[in-house]
Amino acid sequence: MIIKSMSRKHASFDQLIDYIESEKKLKSKNFSIFHNTYSRNTDGLKKEFSENAKHLKFRKNGVYLYHEVISITRAKHIEEDQQKAILQKIVNEYLRMRAKNNLAYAVLHEDKKDNLHFHIVISANEAE
């Protein structure tokens, strides 16, 4: 398993959500994770993350959000849907520990032949 974390110093929620939901990368939203969010649609999520970011205290070089990726190698001896469910469980547990009170949205990408991975948007601050 690989975990990659990238911070962003600009409130680029719209761009990141558009990227992780792009048709080229996203086959289905069946395994998507909505952590501490009310919205389940793209525009609602963008608005919710942006509104929450307004509660951040301005700091020079401050972080607005985190873009994280959690990846596993595809296994040949386990059904693909089972692998997706296992990875989804791992991401849920990761968010519970990493961002208990923050907003987070995670989307499964299946575009790589050798791995499955979730892209995660995490707010820098706790919800409200």
Descriptors:
128 residues; alpha+beta; 3 helices
How would you sum up this structure, described in words?
With 128 residues, the protein is an alpha+beta fold. It is 30% helix and 30% strand. The protein has 3 helices and 5 strands. It has helices spanning 13-20, 42-53, 80-98; strands at residues 2-8, 33-35, 65-73, 102-109, 115-126. Strands 1-3-5-4-2 form a 5-stranded antiparallel sheet, with helices on both faces. Helix 1 packs antiparallel against helix 2 (42-53).
Can you count the helices? 3
Strand content: 25-35%
Series of secondary-structure elements, N-terminal to C-terminal: EHEHEHEE
Give Rg in angstroms: 15 Å
pLDDT averaged over residues: 94
Structural class: alpha+beta
Distance between the termini: 32 Å
**Mind describing the biggest β-sheet?**
5 strands, antiparallel
Approximate helicity band: 25-40%
How are the strands ordered across the major sheet?
1-3-5-4-2
Global geometry: elongated
Low-confidence stretches: none
Oligomer: single chain
Topology:
Elements: E1 2-8, H1 13-20, E2 33-35, H2 42-53, E3 65-73, H3 80-98, E4 102-109, E5 115-126
Antiparallel strand pairs: 1-3, 2-4, 3-5, 4-5
Helix pairs in contact: 1-2
What is the gist of this entry?
Strand 4 and strand 5 (115-126) form a beta hairpin. It contains 3 helices and 5 strands, in the order βαβαβαββ. 30% of the residues lie in helices and 30% in strands.
